[in-house]
Every structure is written in structure tokens, then in C-alpha cells.
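WARN retry 2 of 3 for item q-0093 after timeout on previous attempt; input resubmitted unchanged.
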Amino acid sequence: MDITIRPALPVEHTAAGEVSARAYLADGLLLHGTEDPYLDLLRDAAGRAATADLLIAVHREAGEAGNHPGPDATGTAPGRAAEVLGTVTFAADGPFAQVARPDEAEFRMLAVATRARGRGIGEALVRHCAERAAGLGRRALVLSIADDNERGARLYRRMGFRPEPGRDWQPIPGLTLRVLALPLTAGGTR
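OK item q-0093 returned
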């Protein structure tokens, strides 16, 4: 695959937030569309980066943007934003680990830019989160998913996530989120 997954640079936070917001809107995942209060949280990538790990997928040749003294192969100057193809928020603890138990890590707000879909970027972002969680010694990677997120559900089933029905929850009345867990070993997924 021709992508690199890395922490977002501050200059990339706005783009990561827009990728998240546009993906959730395009997939009809917001109960109140453009008026949904969750849209503000999706756009606030800088806020997520302050308390969790905001990861992005970028073209491989732009993967080192901002990390060396001269322009990279694409002419990206240090500290300049790369094109954000996808993003995810990884939380081993803190406020974005809403359903994770102490021996688990959680990911939230997985999104892939509409024009970058179908290339395995979402799966690569999830695998990256699973590897990080396993590297931290966590026994599982968990997430919450709405019933109407068919695209996500297919991906998570294919990757081996299992329902945890006793942990389902409602962040707001009328929206039930299902908790899924991917069992991990020290070397990665089981």
C-alpha cells in the first residue's frame, strides 16, 4: 500500500477534522445531519490531539512531511500539511477511551476521505491501532458503532471484532452504540 500512518501535525488538524466530518455526513452517520452537535467534535481534531493520539494516513512520499530539513519527494516543505486520506483517534486512556477497560485501548472517529475509499486505508488505520494497543500490552482493542454503520460493521467483522452486547450504551437518547472488541496478543491480533 502506498500510504504512511503517522501522528497528525498541528498544521494537519483542520484537514483531519474535515475528513472526519465529511465522511460521517456522506455516510449518513449523524442523527441530525449538518445540525448534529457531534459534527463539532468531529471537526475538532486539535482537541482530540490534545488528549489522545490523532493519527492520519497520507501518501507514502508525504509521510515524513515536517520531519526533515528540506522538501520531501513531493516538494512538501517542513511543517506543511500533507493530504489527509484518512484519520482515526486512538486512546489508550483519557476522555476518548469511553468504553475501554483498563486492559483495553479504544479507537474512535475512523474516517476515510470519500475519494480515497476502496484502497484499504480504513483497515490499515484500524490495524495500526491494534498494533499500538498490543504493543502497550492491552488484551483488546474496542470501539463503539451505530447500527446504521453498515460499511464499518463489514470491515470490523472481517477483521475479527466481536460484539460485546453487555457493554452497549446510549450517549444520547435514541442512539444506541454497540461495543465491538478485537482480542489481541502481545504480537498483534489473535
